Amino acid sequence: MNEIDFEEYRAHLRGVAYRMLGSLTEADDAVQEAWLRLNRSDVRDVSNLGGWLTTVVARVCLDMLRSRESRAEEPVPAAMAQQPAPSDPESEAQLADSVGIALLLVLDTLEPVERLAFVLHDVFAVPFDEIASIVGRSPDAARQLASRARRRIQGVPTQAIPDSGLVNQRKVVSTFLAALRKGDMQSLLAVLDPDVVVRFEQADGSRQELRGAMNWAKGATAFSYGFRFADAALVDGSPGLVMALHGKLFRAVRFTFGGDGRIVGADVIAHRARLDALDLGVLA
């Protein structure tokens, strides 16, 4: 097996590892470890090399997630608490956007084995009997792990919103986000109620309130670049936005909608303790 042969699988393996770990730097480390294990192994009798490599990367990622959990249980000096910036921030931003920032954030709340089962089966169609051999459980148990992860990822709206209403709200959120990214004031105002009320909870816990669509639109479009790292999500069961950098949630927005479908209220959350307590789901 040479480097050229391995390159045929690198993009796929990187995709698996990134969804498992949520960090491009760690994903590349996992792929590199798979390459090293490949070069130490006799694979002449392996009929499905891509599947073999996927299993290797999954095992490496599972070990990394478990190690991450054990480190989280230990006190961390303040100087070491900041997550290092990725070596290739542009690539990470593009990859996060293609996968879905909301999905990555919800995946990060799962147990390592649940995350593995969901990513391998639901994203990459790996059979449950193969997943079972990786996590050391039965195929039925592996199926249940993926099912639990799927329910957690989908989330449950706190209100009994009809499917049609949720679809419409998803469209409004998408329009809102696209308008902010482009700095498109007219499209932004079109989805905001003229008397919208926006409540801000800052990182230090202080609170502010702003009223009026034009006031919020002007302030929000001035920071349109930050919304490049945003995605639609269920935030405590309500449609909203999540914003993350390097896989870490730094702001969330929970919307309230009026009878005409426009946004009449928004809660913007940046306080760390409140962010950590949020129940997030993918707004499909």
Automatic annotation (TrEMBL):
PANTHER family in the record: ECF RNA POLYMERASE SIGMA FACTOR SIGI-RELATED, SIGMA 19 FACTOR
Residue ranges, annotated region (Disordered): 72-92
An annotated Gene Ontology molecular function: DNA binding
Biased composition, class Low complexity, residue ranges: 75-85
Name the UniProt record assigns to this protein: Putative RNA polymerase sigma factor
Origin organism lineage: Bacteria, Pseudomonadati, Myxococcota, Polyangia, Polyangiales
Pfam (any one): Sigma70_r4_2
Positions of the RNA polymerase sigma-70 region domain: 6-69
Organism: Labilithrix luteola
A Gene Ontology biological process term: DNA-templated transcription initiation
